[in-house]
Design goal:
Strand order of the largest sheet: 3-2-1-4-5-6-11
CATH topology of the largest domain: Rossmann fold
Number of strands: 14
Largest sheet: 7 strands, parallel
Radius of gyration: 19 Å
Number of domains: 2
CATH superfamily of the largest domain: NAD(P)-binding Rossmann-like Domain
Oligomer: single chain
Structural class: alpha/beta
């Protein structure tokens, strides 16, 4: 069993990953400054260090005896990244630079990095595979992820750091408590439970790869034994139209709410979904939770947040 430090471990995906690591018998250090995470999501079985990546002494100390880092501490809100590109660069890119230095100082030889499918830009063909080129990002958030990938790859080349890069698609599920929330599925569910209109661009005709958070979290545990530099897409192998997600939510809650047509949105990629055959061949990982199962669990979670109008 390994000792794993999870940066951003009090966040949506980080808290799920920490839980599954602990369930599998690993020791976990949650490293989070709680600027975007939530103390209530931290598993009591883990060791919690409240600090930022910029606090190098605290970080190096927290890394003592750690076998691997799962790096999830990043700002992820695209519109905010456009408004505050310097903030995103400082947190995401400079924070990763400090982390890699601290790992070197503490003798930690493995990182699993939370990247994104946005590094592929507007795809030339689908499904997306790992050998497709990384393109210029459409926004500062995407560009920071490209830079973070580059830094981790360079560190692997310099110091033989074992580096596993996971490119995510569209995670959803319980414990998504972002404020403000910019992801589609939690906003759709909240609107439906409050019996408010659901805002839709492109009449919901965009195709996306929606992956249930527990499936995505599990991929980090499955790749933990790997060595070298490895890059994997982590998705469901198929795309879903956004309007079909909305219809499935209506089916689960048992009623419909109006659709608020927002028209077209410049810069949107119309279709985006993964081939995850590479990770399946490598470690046997594949998405198991169907969209309807995942949405049902997510709706149950938000029902318990007292969002309904009654």
């Amino acid at each position: 069993m390994s000792k794993v430090l999870v940066t951003g471990g009090a966040g949506f995906l980080g808290s799920w990953t920490a839980k599954l690591l602990l369930d599998a018998g690993h020791k976990v250090v949650v490293y989070d400054n709680l600027s975007k995470g939530f103390e209530k999501l931290i598993d009591p079985r883990s060791t919690f260090v409240k600090a930022s990546l910029s606090q190098k002494e605290k970080l190096t100390d927290a890394l003592k005896g750690v076998d691997a880092v799962i790096h999830m501490a990043a700002y992820i809100v695209v519109p905010e990244s456009v408004e505050k590109p310097d903030l995103y660069w400082e947190n995401n890119v400079e924070g990763t630079k400090v982390l890699l230095e601290a790992m070197r100082d503490a003798g930690v030889g493995k990182i699993i990095f939370s990247s994104t499918a946005t590094v592929y830009g507007d795809p030339d063909k689908l499904p997306l595979t790992e050998d497709m080129p990384v393109k210029l990002a459409a926004n500062p958030y995407g560009q920071t992820k490209i830079e973070m990938e580059k830094m981790i790859t360079e560190e692997h080349e310099k110091s033989s750091l074992n580096a596993i890069i996971l490119r995510y698609f569209n995670p959803y599920g319980p414990n998504e408590l972002h404020n403000p929330e910019t992801h589609a599925i939690p906003n759709f569910i909240k609107a439906a439970l409050k019996k408010e209109s659901i805002p839709l661009y492109w009449k919901g005709e965009q195709v996306r790869d929606f992956i249930y958070v527990e499936d995505l979290a599990r991929s980090h545990i499955d790749v933990l034994p790997l060595k070298g530099l490895q890059i994997f897409n982590v998705g469901t192998n198929k795309g879903e139209k956004v309007i079909d997600v909305v219809k499935t939510i209506f089916e689960i809650v048992g009623y419909e709410v109006p659709i608020w047509d927002l028209g077209e949105r410049p810069g949107d990629v119309m279709a985006n979904y993964a081939s995850s055959e590479k990770i399946k061949k490598s470690v046997g990982w594949e998405a198991k939770v169907t969209l309807k199962e995942g949405l049902t669990k997510t709706i149950d979670f938000f029902k318990n947040q007292n969002l309904s109008p009654d």
